[in-house]
């Protein structure tokens, strides 16, 4: 299931991005964090958390390592999420399946990281030209690494475009599209090092960040996902989101990439009642996309993105792309590890 924290986070990001014209930054969400759970940190143009890959160990002996960096000037995001448990053990099923960082009251179950890059920009183009289309994309390269056993691993990336038509704040919708690689069953979360599965989807939000579940305006909005490599040692995908564009539009753009590493479950924990114990295997492994996720923008001829918080010219190119019909709707297993896994 998609974490409720994932939904809450994006509503907040969308709200602040769409109502604050100076909102443009890089940021990261990281768990566990020495300072507090699900650390959310931002900077103007560059951020790097835990560059020394220092692990955090919780009270039950699980070790988690996270690192994320994002560079607004290049459109690049890099990251690492590692998990280690030296020996198999029984764990008690509680509401969130979360234990605590040793010596603190801070809960930590998984290593998960997400980096994101935001731009707020004015669209400039020939007046009266249309309909025409622009594409925002992200390419994510990474790997699943198994040292001991098979921890559950996840690598994801995507883009969002908040479109304010003609600069009218009452005519705004935001489109979020992304994809992911996982090595675990989306229902049981039991990992398998011999299997890599994928899921992807589109979500639409209104001007104040509310989900548009019925009758979203998706005319001309198209998506494309390419899983360019399914090799666990060389994963690669490209996610593209194409929207209609015209002179005078205001865009809020975001590219994001992340990953997580967590327990090697030996059984379906949905079948373990609260307060009962279930088996977790010994496992050591990590998700590595230090090879970089790269964001880019393809604009039609004659169009440009302007303003103090506009994206750098280095990630913008011209394109005569015509969108394919249709749109993919709703994320499959979802970006489960974006902020944290919550179990009902």
What do you see in this structure?
With 344 residues, the chain is mainly β. Helix content is 5%, strand content 49%. It contains 1 helix and 23 strands. The strands form 4 sheets. Strands 3, 4, 5, 6, 11, 15, 16, 20, 21 and 23 form a 10-stranded mixed β-sheet that branches. A hairpin with a 5-residue loop joins strand 15 (222-229) and strand 16. The radius of gyration is 20 Å and the shape is elongated. The termini are close together. The model is unreliable at 1-22 and 321-344 (pLDDT under 50).
Task: Provide a compact summary of the structure.
It is built from one helix and 23 strands. With 344 residues, the protein is mostly beta strands.
Count all strands and give the number: 23
Q: What level of helicity do the residues show? A: under 10%
Q: How much of the residues is beta strand, in percent?
A: over 45%
Order of helices and strands: HEEEEEEEEEEEEEEEEEEEEEEE
Radius of gyration: 20 Å
Report how far the terminal alpha carbons are from each other: 9 Å
What is the overall shape?
Answer: elongated
Determine the mean pLDDT. Answer: 80
Number of helices: 1
Q: Any low-confidence stretches, pLDDT <50, length ≥5? A: 1-22, 321-344
Largest sheet, described in full? 10 strands, mixed
**Global structural class:** mainly beta
